[in-house]
TrEMBL record:
Keywords: Lyase, Pyridoxal phosphate. Belongs to the beta-eliminating lyase family. This is Tryptophanase. PANTHER family: BETA-ELIMINATING LYASE-LIKE PROTEIN-RELATED, TRYPTOPHANASE. Residues 42-417 form the Aromatic amino acid beta-eliminating lyase/threonine aldolase domain. Its cofactor is pyridoxal 5'-phosphate. The gene is tnaA. It comes from the Bacteria. The keyword Lyase applies. InterPro entries: ArAA_b-elim_lyase/Thr_aldolase, Beta-eliminating_lyase, PyrdxlP-dep_Trfase, PyrdxlP-dep_Trfase_major, PyrdxlP-dep_Trfase_small. Gene3D superfamilies: Aspartate Aminotransferase, domain 1 (3.90.1150.10), Type I PLP-dependent aspartate aminotransferase-like (Major domain) (3.40.640.10). Pfam families: Beta_elim_lyase (PF01212).
Length: 453
């Protein structure tokens, strides 16, 4: 059960199917055009959508808004240093600002950033800095049904080949957990091996640690050597292997806004500090207010609580299991922050060119007011200006992201029941065609219409 009780409540909109059909049509069948009023259960993102604790609210009240050298900064730095072990801590307004600053200071034009799977803003920031992204997920990641423990690992043989090849590698970046790869964890053994490969060649090794605590939890559950360890001990050991990290605190910081860049190298830190002050704010607040810094510090303490992590992991696995029993498969094994539904398998009558993943995501909204994100050909496929699909995504997935401490198990049961209703008559679900397909940031801006596949 949840190791907390509810002190503040917020009503959620309960709507009718008629209402949702009208609103979704007005929204051009794009869930990003829906508003909070339209959505009953919002599983679009686990980023910045968590619930604050009473202690975080109290910490926010203690927030000190002094411009330079605020007390809040020293409290934040103490927690961040204790957790990561890095000497240079820079607060930023969210994860992508840390990416922009790090890559801007570190990457030379044409250099590679090599990783297990870069997150989409991470990729964009590597490219904006003139770098090139190379994703090397392990082979098990491609098998959605495999129960391998660490499908977030990087392919070490491929990594070594790139490091010893002719290309110039600017850094290796390991994303924990691997959000782009089904939210799968990375093993400590894999991180250790990456560290050794990088150190031997003098290549910087960084973590994209948005879900460092969830990764640490899964390590304590799945990696023999770490069974007796606490999640916080494992997280510290993981940070200890790398030269620094970029972190979106909107995930495992359990705050609504916040991020962090942390480093060992003093020379690199000096270059980053310059970019930080020019674009985010003075080094003792980054892009954050004092109250944000204090709430982040408290969130970074709470998030490694084993009781919290166990319940979160178990409730996500429970949703995946309820869905499976209703006939809807998802990427195995279940991760912690999201369930990735296999829409391609549920809706074989809808070809990728009619956006199978989007079709399932849309039906979840129409049937139950549940909003979620498509991770299929609409997002990841190659599409021409007229909206025709040229190259499909490898899988048609739908991500149900679970906000932290927000929904109870009965909310998740409602999601599973809605899925079960869809799975009874999957052939009734229509496909979609793009009517507006902007070349840039397409998923956020496109419009669609329903078509019978
Ligand atoms: C969310 C996220 C980011 C970007 O962080 P923002 O706070 O949204 O800017 C980077 N990497 C990963 C793995 C993420 O999940």
């Amino acid at each position: 059960m949840e190791p907390y009780r509810i002190k503040v409540v917020e009503p959620i909109p309960i709507t009718t199917r008629d209402y949702r059909e009208r609103r979704y049509a007005e929204a051009g069948y794009n869930q990003f055009n829906l508003t909070a009023e339209d959505v009953t259960i919002d599983l679009l993102s686990d980023s910045g959508t968590g619930a604050l604790s009473a202690e975080q609210q109290a910490a926010g009240m203690r927030g000190d808004e002094t411009y330079a050298g605020a007390r809040s900064w020293f409290r934040f730095r103490e927690v961040a240093e204790e957790l990561t072990g890095y000497e240079h801590i820079f607060p930023v307004h969210q994860g992508r600002a840390a990416e922009r600053i790090l890559f801007g200071a570190l990457l030379k034009p044409g250099q590679l950033s090599v990783g297990n799977t870069h997150f989409d803003t991470t990729r964009a920031n590597v490219e904006l800095a003139g770098g090139v992204v190379r994703d090397l997920p392990c082979a098990a990641a491609a098998d959605l049904d495999s129960d391998a423990d660490f499908k977030g690992d990087i392919d070490l043989v491929a990594l070594e080949a790139v490091l010893d090849g002719p290309e110039d590698v600017g850094l290796v970046l390991m994303t924990i957990t691997n959000n782009g790869g089904g939210g799968q964890p990375v093993s400590m053994a894999n991180l250790e091996a990456v560290k050794k490969l990088c150190r031997k060649r003098g290549v910087p090794f960084f973590l994209d640690a948005a879900r460092f605590a969830e990764n640490a939890w899964l390590v304590t559950q799945r990696e023999e050597k770490y069974r007796g360890h606490s999640p916080r001990e494992v997280a510290k050991l993981a940070f200890g292997m790398a030269d620094g990290c970029v972190v979106s605190l909107k995930k495992d910081g359990i705050v609504h806004i916040g991020g962090m860049l942390a480093l060992r190298d003093t020379e690199l830190a000096k270059r980053c500090e310059l970019l930080l002050i020019a674009t985010e704010g003075f080094r003792t607040y980054g892009g954050l207010s004092g109250r944000d810094l204090d709430m982040c510090a408290q969130g970074l303490i709470e998030v490694t609580d084993p009781l919290y992590l166990r319940e979160r992991a178990e409730s996500t696995a429970y949703l995946a299991e309820c869905a499976r029993q209703a006939g809807v498969d998802s990427v195995r094994p279940a991760g912690v922050h999201a369930v990735y539904l296999n829409a391609g398998r549920l809706l074989p009558h809808i070809p990728s060119s009619r956006f199978t993943g989007h079709a399932l995501a849309s039906e979840l909204y129409l049937a139950g007011g549940i909003r979620c994100a498509e991770l299929g050909s609409l997002y990841l496929g190659e599409i021409d200006e007229s909206g025709e699909l040229l190259t499909p995504a490898p899988f048609e997935l739908v991500r149900l992201a679970i906000p932290r401490r927000v929904y109870t198990r009965s909310h998740l049961e409602y999601v599973a029941e809605t899925l079960a209703g869809i799975a009874k008559n999957p052939e009734r679900v229509p496909g979609y065609r793009l009517t507006e397909a902007p070349a840039m940031l397409r998923p956020f801006r496109c419009r669609l219409e329903q078509v019978q596949p």
